[in-house]
Amino acid sequence: MNADFQRLLAKGREPAVFINFAALGVIGVSGALLNVVVGSIWGSSTLGVFNQVFAVYLLAGQLGVIGLQNAALQHGAANLTQLSDVACASLILCASIALPVAVLLWLGSGAIGYVLDSAPVRQGIALVAPGVLFFAINKVALALLNAAGRMVWYGLLQALRVVAILALVGAAAIFGIDGVMLPLAFVGAELVVLFILAGWFVRPSQISITAASAWFKRILLFGIKSAPATSFNEINYRVDTLVLGVFVGDRVVGVYSLASTLVEGLMQGLIVIRTLVASALVEALQEPARKTTAELIRWTRRASYLLFLVVAILALPVYWAFLDVTGLMTDFSDSILIFAILIAGPTLAAGYIPLGTILMFAGRPFEQSVLAAIILAANTALNFALTAPFGAIGAATATASANVFAAALLHLLIKRRLGLAF
C-alpha cells in the first residue's frame, strides 16, 4: 500500500470509521424496529402503504434536489477554501427547485394513488409532500459535510433521521394515532435534522451572495447532468416496491417490503464504505496516472466483498429468528424466501456497490447518467416481466438479477472508459 493511498484513505477517517459504522448499526436496528412496530401494531397492509409512500417520497426528494448534492460534493471537496460559497450557492439553488416539486407532489397525490390503486397511499403522499423541501436541503447540506471531511457529523445525522422516524412512529403507537397519519414521521424527522444542520450553514458572517453567484451556473449544470444518475439510482432501489404496488394489494407489498427494507438496511455497510472513500476517490481521480485510484478501488472491492459475505452468511438464520421472536412469523412467513432471494443480489455485487458513482467523480456525469438509465431500464423490465406472473417472488428475483447486471456493467465501464486496471 503506497504512501499516497494511505494518506487519502486516512485523511479524517480514523474517528469517522467508528462513528459511521456505529451509525450503520443504529440505522439497521432502527429500520428493523420501525417495520416491526408498523407491521405488528397496524398490520401488513399499513406497512405496505407506509413503504409505498416512502418510496414515492424519496423519488420526489431526488427530483427536488436535482443532483445538486453531487455538485456540492464534487466542487466542495475540490475547492475547500471556497466551501462556504459553494454551500451558499448549492443551498439557494436547492430550495428554489425543491419547493415547486413539493407543491407538484401534493397536487399529483390523487393520480399516484389511482395508479397504485390505494386511497391510503394517496393520503400519505399528500401528507409527506411538504417534507420534500426539507429532504432536498438536508441532502445537499450532508453532501457539504462530506466534502468538508466532517464524517462524524455525517454519520450521526444519518442515524438521527431514522431514529427520529422511529421515535415519532412509536409516539403514534402510544397515542393510538391512525396508521394513515404515519407518513408525517418522515417530515418530522427531516425537520429535526434540518434544525441541527442550520447550525453549520446559517452563519451570516460567512454568507456572500455575490461570491456564491459565481458558482450558480457551474453547480446547476453539474447537478442537472448528474441528476438522471442520482434519480435513476433512487428509482432503481424503489422500482420493485412501486411495480409490486401496481400488480398486488397493500398487504402483499407489506410482506415484501419487510424483507426488502431489512436487506436495504444491511446494504448500508456498503454505503458507509462508499461515503468514507468518496472524497479520497475524487482527489485520486485527479491524478494523471491514477495509480492511487486503482489501489483505492482494489481496497474498496476487497473490503466490500468481505464485509457483505459475512453479513449474508448470518442474515437468513437471523431473519428467521427475528420473525419468530417478534411474533411476526404468522403474517410475514412468506417473506423468508423473498429475503433469501433479495440478499443474493448484493452479495454477488458487493464489491461494486460502493463504486457506483465513480464515473461522476471522474467528471463524467453524463456517462454516469447513461449507466444508471441502462440499469434502471433492465431492472424495470425484469420487474414488470416477473412481477405480473409471479408476484413478490418475481419482484425479488428481478431485483437481485439487476444488482448482478449492474456490477458486471460497472466493471466493464471502469476498465474501458477510465482505463483502470484493477
What characteristics describe this protein?
422 residues, mainly alpha, 17 helices, 85% helix
Q: What's the short story on this structure?
A:
Helices cover 85% and strands 0% of the residues.
> Structurally, how many domains make up the residues?
1
DSSP, total strands: 0
The proportion of strand residues reads under 5%
Helix count equals 17
How confident is the prediction overall: mean pLDDT? 87
Q: Sketch the major β-sheet.
A: none
Inertia-based shape: globular
Architecture overview:
It is a single chain. The protein has one domain. 85% of the residues lie in helices and 0% in strands. It contains 17 helices and no strands. Helix 2 runs parallel beside helix 8 (151-174) and helix 10 crosses helix 17 (365-417). The longest helix has 53 residues, at 365-417. It is globular. The relative contact order is 0.14. The mean pLDDT is 87.
Helices and strands in order:
Blueprint: H1 3-10, H2 14-42, H3 44-65, H4 68-78, H5 83-115, H6 119-128, H7 131-147, H8 151-174, H9 184-201, H10 209-247, H11 250-266, H12 268-284, H13 291-326, H14 329-332, H15 335-349, H16 358-361, H17 365-417
Helix pairs in contact: 2-3, 2-8, 2-11, 2-12, 3-5, 3-6, 3-7, 3-10, 3-11, 4-5, 4-7, 4-10, 5-6, 5-7, 5-10, 7-8, 7-9, 8-9, 10-17, 11-15, 12-13, 13-15, 15-17
